[in-house]
Every structure is written in structure tokens, then in C-alpha cells.
# Entry
Amino acid sequence: MTSKIVELEKPKLKNPVFVEGLPGIGNVGRIAAGYLVEQLKAKKFAELLSSHFMPFVLLHPSSSVHVLKNEFFYYKGKGKERDMIILIGDSQSIDPEGHYEIVEEVLKLIKGYGVKEMFTLAGFGIGEEVKKPKVIGAVNDSALVKKYGKSGIDFEAGNRIGTIVGASGLLLGLGRYYGLDGVCLLGETVGFPIIPDPKSAEEVLKVLSKILGLKIDVSELEKKVKEMQEFIKKVQEAQAGAIAQMMKPPEKPADKDKLTYIG
Amino acid sequence: MTSKIVELEKPKLKNPVFVEGLPGIGNVGRIAAGYLVEQLKAKKFAELLSSHFMPFVLLHPSSSVHVLKNEFFYYKGKGKERDMIILIGDSQSIDPEGHYEIVEEVLKLIKGYGVKEMFTLAGFGIGEEVKKPKVIGAVNDSALVKKYGKSGIDFEAGNRIGTIVGASGLLLGLGRYYGLDGVCLLGETVGFPIIPDPKSAEEVLKVLSKILGLKIDVSELEKKVKEMQEFIKKVQEAQAGAIAQMMKPPEKPADKDKLTYIG
Amino acid sequence: MTSKIVELEKPKLKNPVFVEGLPGIGNVGRIAAGYLVEQLKAKKFAELLSSHFMPFVLLHPSSSVHVLKNEFFYYKGKGKERDMIILIGDSQSIDPEGHYEIVEEVLKLIKGYGVKEMFTLAGFGIGEEVKKPKVIGAVNDSALVKKYGKSGIDFEAGNRIGTIVGASGLLLGLGRYYGLDGVCLLGETVGFPIIPDPKSAEEVLKVLSKILGLKIDVSELEKKVKEMQEFIKKVQEAQAGAIAQMMKPPEKPADKDKLTYIG
Amino acid sequence: MTSKIVELEKPKLKNPVFVEGLPGIGNVGRIAAGYLVEQLKAKKFAELLSSHFMPFVLLHPSSSVHVLKNEFFYYKGKGKERDMIILIGDSQSIDPEGHYEIVEEVLKLIKGYGVKEMFTLAGFGIGEEVKKPKVIGAVNDSALVKKYGKSGIDFEAGNRIGTIVGASGLLLGLGRYYGLDGVCLLGETVGFPIIPDPKSAEEVLKVLSKILGLKIDVSELEKKVKEMQEFIKKVQEAQAGAIAQMMKPPEKPADKDKLTYIG
# Structure
């Protein structure tokens, strides 16, 4: 095992667009994509498991457990809407190599479904709270700046940003080698990882809805976020707790004389 | 080499149940499963070696060594008892990926023997000593809560527990993808890793015996634990000592001028 | 994915010589090789991607991103000049194994193009600034000392240097097993990683040009370095920032009682 | 590349015994095996390279470099002497998994040459200097204690030793699964890694010579050690220097505002 995708169903999709929102700064992407899944009643069709996630299971109030995973949902567009594949999840890779590996698995899957365009959703920490967070854009082909220039995306802020770490960035960067166009929508947020930012997620979602011609009712977002956040927070705290535990120096041996390192 | 199973014998087992008890908090699972192996006179039939264990051998008083390993035992049920596979061992993986890899190797092996149900035994650190430790349950299918609800398992405490780290959790979580039902029995214990907790192990063992219809005499447990603990403690101390040694910053070079990093 | 080479073109080259200059101390090698690519108008024909690079993309002022990579350029020699393959890049491996893996990928590629001789360019930190940095040489076959002894390379300083870390060293060491002759040209530099040293790069380039009979105008080097450095600095700072971020201890869980490590 | 063996020659050996001495505590094993190679004029026939060694090359005074490696030598026994394979080297694995992988590569090679018995040479740190270091023994089959009980090996000290870390231990532990008998000879030594201990190596060598019926003149050992030590020390210091360098926290970005982590 390193990373593997378990397919639950093989939906027939027509020229689907791909949207990703995994945990990250302010959980902006995770909240936006999770809300999208709920509002569209998108259906889960695949799960990604990985030994690059933390080696634990999450315990639900029902006493049942599940292993950390990323989940693929599909949505069949109504009327002029496009078909979609949405990726959300509990976690991103905990080591550098895992990011590459997982992103490649995702790219192979969505390429197989005929995806040609991707929108990755993320947060951009600016260190202070703002009333109306801007949505900053990054692309994996400069021609896309023109294409999406009138969608309320700030394409001038690229200079302020050095890098996009993790899946939202690598999907664009590696996706180029798969012939996929990609836009990363970065909602401005304070930037403390544990504080979720529904306001920023709302702005990201508005931009995405406009581009995709979706009618998403964002009025319930804050309420839903509270529920969703319960769970996301639990995962993150558990992760932090487990990492802290794993990083603790080993206990001192009781009887040092009996224990010796021999090379 | 990453992880590999060495099979010593291919026992014929009929619908065996799987029980796991590896080192962990309070060594509750390890003690309970180890005692079970002794009392049932279960027979070893396979060993699991892994490069995710510490790279050392343990030296016995007899001057002979053995490499760290996990061991599979089988027991042929008498009368109404069921056949069993029991997993105990010296160590769990020392890195995150290893947990996934080892658990998958275990799942493949037991699936091959027709296992459909698993009981993983572990401790749950509560930070204080209690006279009669409760046994908390977690399942990998919520229907199992009903099935085992009358076995003296506390299925209400799930909310207090965020995660189950390591093999006891992952066997359940990943086992679901192998079609295996799994119950984790977590004995309450103080929670300091090095202090073994035979009392907690006893409670876990009582619950397990009741479910499986085994007649296990727990009167010798505390005595046996003392013997067993000698060995387990030695392993853990050695592991802690070796890890500490490995984590020591490298010695300062004597003549700094001759040694330069060149990129 | 671990490391892979994407070939954009298959140039026909005649007995090409290989030159490597990746980021390192004082960026001496990176600056020298980068300038060489510009001055020769060498053409890119392959890219190397690796999960041993940092898992992020770099964001350009144009708002477009690219994944970290190493790039292969070729140059068809004019007159008596030799054909060349030049390797430059954003990054070296961030873990020990990656260095070996990437270097082997490079060796396989250049061996396939008939390379028999390599020049790897690097810096050697001496802890103080010097007016005219010397170029120190290391070889992977002692016969090469004689061959290049009159090219202005200091082959007496080997004793002051303990090791050559990373691609510049491993290309020589592992290249021996591929039957390739290799010379490492180490320009003396102060040694603080983030301060680029065009003067040292210039000296390295002069030696290389003399050996290869290239007429490289080094007068523009300092100016070009300023431009190039903007970008290299951005990558390095981003890398440092991301590493620092990744190394931060996890946030303390808000409600410690609900989060417990269970082995 | 992970670990690979480069065979330079395929010697025909008759029932050879295997001796290992790699760097470790007091370099006892490395010194003893290295001296053995010199005294027997054993011939190198294979090299082991590994991406689990440090990613650098060592620079010799001649300005030539070599990549870190382990080296296999063979010796054709004269008269009643047995054929031998001797393993020495610059380094052991720098990560836990590497130890397992390298040891398995070694075991496969020597098994292929018909080896049935191994002697691994190492140091045992006791924290104080002693006039006449004892040679402590560990075996991978308790029957071997009887076989070698009269060879001046202390088989009573096993209790004082918890573990044997690295190749000397794992060769015994994993070698058991290859059907190989193994004895580890541990020379008592102070235990500071960087201080080589020729006296301890001498005692180990005496015991080994007696068992194998070799006539090794140990009078030159201390002198030879001085020469050998120059080199071993250089490797270790370089390794320590490089590790220290690699462990340094990344430089602070100059302009923090431009660099932000985005998940």
C-alpha cells in the first residue's frame, strides 16, 4: 500500500469539470467544496486511501470508525450546467513525497473521466482579518488569465504569493503534464490553520458558481460550516494530538546499564 | 524488504476469528493477547518481519538473538469454541507508512484463512487509575454495536475518543475494505506507555472470552504478566534507548576547517 | 511517481559533453550553468520532475505556476566547439535518497545521448570573501588530474575538502559506474547559502570555457545574475518558508480530553 | 536505485565463512575486519552502493572522489584455512529501513556463494576504559554457544546487552531465515563513537583467528589503525558535518510578506 483509489461506481460523465477542496489554511477549500457537494447532492463514487495519511482511524459518536480518506463525488449537470467531479477529504499527505503521489493518482482518475479543466480551491493567509476577502487566482497556462479575467478573480496578486503548497498547487503544476487546464482560487484568510473561514469560502464559492453557471444558495453556508467544522476540527485536533504524541522523545530506560547501543 | 510474512505451517482452520494484541498504551492489548496464546496453548504458524521495525536484534539471556517480529498463532476450538488466529508481537511500525503496510499484510493473510470477524485489543489512556477499568468499544460497521451491545462493552464512550492509532485502529478501518467485521476493545488505563496494566488487560480478556465462549482462567494473569513484562519492558527500553541514540545530534567534527558542505 | 524525465525533443548530438549546475552553496554552479544556457541560446529538450522536490508550485508574476523541476538543454557546437547537454534547475532533492535517485535518472539520460565526459559546477564555502576566487577541482579518475592540470584548476586543495554533497558530487561518484569521466569545478565562495556569488561563478565559467574552447562573454554575468537571482532567491525563500511551516509543531488541540493516543 | 551490488569478479569459493566489520561503536568491527583484509591480502570482488548512505562523495588527497560504499573481499584459504568473504565499508545505513534492505542484499550475495557461517564484528560500549577488553558473544542459534564456548568468548554477558543495532545484529537475526549460523563478537570498548579502539579490535581479532585457525600478526594493528583511522575519521567527520548541515533550520526568508504557505 502507498495510495490507492477504491471505485464504488463508474459514473458516465460528459466533459466533466474537476473541483478540489482539501483541508488547508483556513480550510477555505475544504469548506467550499464540501458545501458544494451538499448543495448539489453530489454522489460519492470513489475513495482514495493512502499510507501518506496519519495511521489512525477516526471514531464517530456512533462508535464506528473510518480510516482517513479523500472522496470523489460526481454531479450530473442540469440544463446548461456541466457535469462535475468534486474531491474533498479528511487530510492531505503528511510527507512531501505523498503529495506528489496522491496528486498523480487523482490526475490519472480524472483524466480517465475526460476532465480537461480543473478548479482547485484554497486559502491564502494574509495575517489579518478582512471584511470582504478577495479571491486571488493562479493558473497553469497564462492564457487562462484572459479567459477568467472577468470572473471577479484577482490575477494581480500573484507577486505577493511565492508558492502554493500541497494538492491545490500540485494539481495545477503536474496537471499541465496531463494536458489539463487548471485555475486555483485562493480566498484571502487570516491564516491560522485551525480557524476555519466560512466567509472566505463563500467568496471562493461565489466566483466558482459564476464561472460554472451554478446557482448555489450560500445563505446556509455559515450554519452548515458549524456542523461540518465540528468534524473537520476533530480530525485536525486528533491529527495534531497524534503527531505530538509521535514526536515525543522516547521514555528514558529505567535501567540504563542494561541497554546499550552497539553499532 | 519492506514487510514480509514467513509461514511456518498452513493450518486448516474453520471460519476462524482473528484477535490482535500488539504493544501500545499500557500494553493492554499485548498482555491480553499474549495471555490468551499461553492459556490456549495456541501454536505459532507465521511470523511477520518488517523494515518498519527498529533495525536491531534482541539479545536473550541465553545469548541468542532474534529480530523484531509479529507472530501469528492459531487455536483449534474445542466443542463449541471457534477456531482462532491470534497476532502478538514485539513492536509496531516506527513510521506512519509502515502501519498501513503491515496492517495490509495482516489483512491479506487472515482473509486467506477465511477470517470474517476481528477483535483488536488495545488500551485507552484516561489519565488516572480506576479500580475497575471499563472496556470501551469501537466498530467498523455500526450494526456491530447492536450485535455486541450486551457483552459488557461501553459503546457510549466513542465521543470521548478521537482516534485509534496504529494496528488496532487500522485493522478495523482498512479491514472494512476487505469485507471484515471488526470490533476494537479498549481497556481503560492510566496511559503512561511504559506502565503495563494487567488489570485493564484482564477486563478486556473477560469481555472477549464471554463473546467467544472461551473459558479463560484469568487468575494467573498478574503472575504471568510479571514474567511477560520482563521481556516486553526490555524490548521497549531497548527501543527507547536505540531511538534516543539515533536521535542524538552527530558529534562535532574535530577539525572543522577540513569539512565543508558543498551543494 | 518518484522521479521522472519528460522528454520534449530528441536532439541528435555528437559526442556531447555534459555540464551540470544546480542550486547549492553560493549558487555558484546554478549561476554559471544558467548563464551558459543563456549565452549559448541552448534549447530545452527534457525536464525532470521528482517527488523528492518540495511539494509546491512556484507562482510567477504572470499568475501562472510551475512545479519544481530540473531542465536539460542542448547546444550544437559551432566550428570546433563540442555538442553539449546542460542541466540546470530550481532545486535539488530534499532528502538523501532522492539525490541518488535523481542522479541515476540523469546519468541514464546522458549515457543514452553518448556522453562520456561531465563537468559539474559547484561552490566551495571557505568562510571568508576573497578577491579572486580559486577554482578547485575534483575528479572521478585520478588520470583526469593530469589531463586538466593546466586549465587553471587547483588540484592541490583536495585535502581541505572532505566531501562534495549532492548532485555535483554524486554525478562524479556514481558516473564512474557508468563509465563516465567527471570533473567537478568548485568555485571558492563565502559559503552562506542564500548569498549568490557571481564572481565565483565567473571564475568557474572561465575555466570551463577554456577547457571546452567556448567563447563566453562574461561581461554581462553580473547584470544577468541580478535578474536570475530574483527568481532563484524567490524559490529558495519559498522553500525555506515552506519547510519552516512544515516543521512547525502541530497546534495544541483545544479540548485535550477528547483526544487521546491509543496504541 | 535503493541498494545495489556491483560485482567485479565471480570468485570460486569453497564453503566460505563470512566476516563482517562495518563502522560502529569504537569502530571495533571496522578496524578488525579492515586489518584482516590487509593481512590476508584479500581481494575485492564486489561493491554495495545504496541510497541509504549519505548523498555525498569523499574527496581523497589525490583529488579523486568515491561514493560511499561497502566492499566485499574474498580470501582463498591456505592449507587448513577456510575460504572467506569479508565485508568492510565506509558507512552503514542512515535510516532504519536501509539497515534491513542492505543486510538482505548482503545475505542474498553470501548465500549465493555458499556461506553457512557468519562472524559479525562489533563493539560494545561499557562506559569506561578497561585494560583487557573482553569479547562478548551473541548467536542466532543457541546451539552455537556450546560450539564456540571454548574460544575465549564471554557468553554470560548477554543479559547486560539489550540489543545489537545495525548490520552486525541484523545479519544474525535475518540470517536465521536464510539458514545461516551467525556469531557476533562484541569487543568491550568505552563507547564514544568517534574514538576508535584498536585494543578492542585486537581482542576480537584474536578470538576470530583462533576460531578460524588463521595466523594473524596483530603486532602491526596499532600502527595500521593510525593510517586507517585517518580515513575512517575523515568519513565520519564529513558525515557528521553533512548531517549537521542538513539538519540546520532553513534560512529565514528576507521578505516574509511575499512568502506564504497555502494548503
User: Anything to note?
Assistant: Residues 221-247 of chain D form the longest helix (27 residues). The two ends of chain D are 31 Å apart (CA to CA).
